[in-house]
Amino acid sequence: MMTPREEAEDLLLNPLPDTFSDVMIPTRIAALDVEIAETIDKLKDLQSSRDLLLDHAVKTNHMEDSTFKIEVNIKYGARVASGEKLRENYPKQFSLYVMAIANKKLRGIVDVAEKATIDPDGTIELGIADKIFGKKNVDACSVIPETKVYNVVKKK
Question: Could you tell me the pTM of the whole model?
Answer without folding.
Answer: 0.53
